[in-house]
Specification:
Structural class: alpha/beta
Number of strands: 9
Largest sheet: 9 strands, mixed
Order of helices and strands: HEHEHEHHEHHHEHHHEHEEHHEHHHH
Number of helices: 18
Oligomer: single chain
Helix content: 40-55%
Shape: globular
Strand content: 5-15%
């Protein structure tokens, strides 16, 4: 059905949440307040403006009806979206456009795996949003990711990916494991090591043809995401070869592959989607946006068979998230900045969450009914609003690097090789580091 949104093993599809309704008056209130912040007008001679938004995959604005709503609030402005399916295709094109200063949209989507490189090398080509948005409204670590050393903000935060664990209650029950989300949380309270122990318990009585997890590479990314230091240190030096979080994630992934706890399917591939429909995977590392992938690909026949609990261990984690930036070379910089402010305001982020499950990075959304009281009917009415809000507030500030996306993708590929081809951990690590060193210099 839907275009995927991917970077470093990340992808999205639509998930309709069972939440309370977002009122038109709430949207109208926010829209009016943002319009009054500036008297600047970049309208054409006939007073009509078309703002273009370029993004990748599923940002959810069209699905939430926000572009149409913005036109209602501002009849002279029409918003058109240009979506690229794969972020790995989108980003090189964006760099080319920034380098040439042409072909850019008024608003550009920016992926968290690329934001550090853009902050370090392209900040002067984006409008400074620090005077347009109040950065204190966001979870603290989110806007810091898009802020230069001298305080310039090149992107307003859209969504984040607080971590949880999705599990198939039907398969757990058949394997003799607890199915209540609190009981499952207790089994993995000690961390990802406990998660693998639970996997071994599952394997002893697993239904034929099923596996404890979908992908060791997915677990790897979840493990690394729970650490402040990942691939780079504060000085900008690549430390992935010696990073404790990378070592922990790699060793756990190698153990999962060796013990045959994983089906070895690359996430979002056709075999992975088919496995969801057939219910052959008992658990999936589950950042907020993953619930939509599961519900769409597992289908209506598996509704109620899945649940969500907290992620293993006590350390909060974030996997994924994006920003909206305004290129200086755009035709309508002032109006584009006002659109960005409106799209990333609490009410609009809540509307996107309701439409596709992208969890807000704006803290003001967390107390709105559409977020605070959100439950997922597909997942046994799991209280995702409260679960993800609690997680988001305690996620550590991550040290980002310019080539985080490339490093993650390369390591994930080699973990898949361990699972699918039987490549030894030593050979896989050597292949990963060789490829990364060539790519990042």
């Amino acid at each position: 059905m839907r275009i995927t949104r991917t970077v470093a093993g990340r992808s999205r599809k639509v998930a309709v949440l069972a939440t309370t309704g977002l009122t038109a008056s709430a949207l109208l209130l926010t829209g009016c307040s943002s319009d009054s912040d500036s008297s600047d007008n970049t309208a054409s001679a006939n007073g009509k403006i078309t703002l273009t938004v370029a993004d990748f995959g599923q940002f959810g604005y069209k699905e939430a009806g926000l572009f149409a709503k913005y036109h209602e609030l501002h009849p002279n402005i029409t918003v058109k979206e240009d979506t690229t399916a794969d972020e790995k295709v989108y980003y090189p094109k964006l760099l080319q456009q920034l380098n040439s200063g042409s072909g850019l949209a008024d608003v550009q989507g920016l992926e968290v795996g690329r934001i550090k490189e853009l902050v370090d090398t392209k900040a002067d080509q984006f409008a400074d949003l620090s005077k347009v948005i109040d950065v204190s409204e966001w979870v603290s670590w989110k806007e810091k990711q898009a802020t230069t050393a001298d305080g310039k903000v090149i992107g307003a935060g859209t969504d984040i990916g607080p971590m949880s664990l999705c599990y198939n209650t039907e398969l757990f029950k058949k394997a003799g494991l607890p199915t209540d989300r609190k009981d499952v949380a207790a089994k993995i309270a000690g961390g990802w090591e406990d998660y693998l122990k639970l996997g071994e318990e599952y394997k002893k009585n697993a239904p034929s043809g099923t596996y404890f997890m979908d992908s060791a590479s997915a677990m790897y990314n979840a493990v690394v995401s729970s650490n402040a230091k990942q691939y780079y240190d504060e000085s900008g030096k690549a430390i992935y070869k010696d990073s404790p979080s990378v070592k922990q994630g790699w060793d756990l992934a190698a153990e999962a592959a060796d013990k045959k706890l994983t089906q070895g399917l690359a996430q979002f591939s056709d075999p992975w989607k088919a496995a969801l429909r057939k219910s052959t995977m008992a658990t999936i590392a589950c950042p907020a946006w993953m619930a939509g992938q599961i519900s769409v690909n597992a289908g209506d026949g598996n509704k109620g068979k899945w649940d969500i609990t907290t992620a293993p261990g006590s350390t909060a984690a974030n996997w994924g998230g994006s920003f909206l930036g305004v290129p200086k070379a755009g035709k309508n910089v002032d109006e584009a900045a006002k659109l960005v402010k409106w799209l990333t305001a609490p009410e609009q982020q809540a509307a996107v969450f309701k439409a596709i499950g992208s969890f807000p990075s704006n803290k003001g959304a967390y107390d709105l009914p559409d977020v605070k009281g959100a439950k997922l009917a597909y997942f046994n009415d799991a209280p995702i609003g409260q679960l993800y809000a609690d997680e988001a507030k305690s996620i550590p500030e991550t040290v980002l690097g310019p080539k985080d996306g490339i490093i993650k993708d390369t390591i994930s590929t080699q973990i898949n090789n361990m699972e699918q081809r039987g490549t030894s951990p030593d050979d896989a690590w050597k292949a990963a580091t060789n490829s990364i060193d060539k790519a990042i210099g």
